[in-house]
Amino acid sequence: MQIPNYQTYMRSVLKHVADGEEHQLSKLINTICDDLGLTQEQRHQKMPSGKQTVVYGRIGWAKTYLAQAGLLTLPKRGYCVITQRGLDALNSDVEINNDYLKQFPEYIAFKERTHTNVDDNKPRQQHSSLENEQTPHELLENTYNTINSALASDILDAILKASPEFFERLVVDLMLAMGYGGTRKDAGQATQYTQDGGIDGIIKEDKLGLEMIYLQAKRYSNKTVGRPEIQAFAGALDMHRAKKGVFITTSSFSKEAIEYVSLIEKRIVLINGEQLTELMLSHDLGVSTKQVYELKALDSDYFIED
């Protein structure tokens, strides 16, 4: 008997958190396995890496997909809480799987972020058949994208749960990781909280401080940053006779805001939530390497005989 795929666990996960309380998923593993009648051998079967059981990994992915579709929320690491959408799904007679989750725009957006190698000109219904035709390397890349997309959502969620001061420190740390500001000590001296019109911090563009970059950080969940806020930031730059600024938000920018920065003389870079998480992943900020897989290729030179 094969171990069920991750979709099979979705209803059982919802069932065991249906009371609306916070639940630590790791403590529900055996109960969920009991629901599905899994043997002890199946429960203890390890992934090829030997670091995690297959069941734990698949239940974890069931939780991730449910959360991406809005059926669960993740209040803190390892914990989940059911939403009204999750209760509605649980009380329905339909099978809860990826096809069911496709009705929710949050899930569609999540899947679209992960299919960077899928031809967007092809209809959505052809994507699943395309996946079946992919080479192992293509499948690996798409799996990598899926994992990183889920991680990006976790990063944004963690930022929104942290304090505003933490977010402002994160912005400085990101600039440092990207090579700006010199040392952490220099950046700390350059960063200042002000009350004079929308400047959250100042950081050196280079180690000598020949140019300064002014920072604005807005921690929004659903609010779009519009042109008026960018104009106010540009006005704050004028007060400091500054030419360069970076406006970072966890949400997004309106079309008018993006058009505005292309029309003015000052150089203002806009970084939205998606770009923020991409930069954090690229520069290893707020994340750690969990596991490394090496892809090896044939060394043809080794087999050349003189």
UniProtKB/TrEMBL annotation:
Residues 6-91 form the Restriction system protein Mrr-like N-terminal domain. GO terms for biological process: DNA restriction-modification system. InterPro entries: Mrr-like_N_dom (IPR025745), Restrct_endonuc-II-like (IPR011335), Restrct_endonuc_IV_Mrr (IPR007560), tRNA_endonuc-like_dom_sf (IPR011856), Type_IV_Methyl-Rstrct_Enzyme (IPR052906). GO terms for molecular function: DNA binding; restriction endodeoxyribonuclease activity. The keyword Phosphoprotein does not apply. Residues 115-135 are annotated as: Disordered. Gene3D superfamilies: 3.40.1350.10. Residues 160-280 form the Restriction endonuclease type IV Mrr domain. It comes from the Bacteria. Keywords: Endonuclease, Hydrolase, Nuclease. This is Restriction endonuclease. It comes from Thalassomonas viridans.
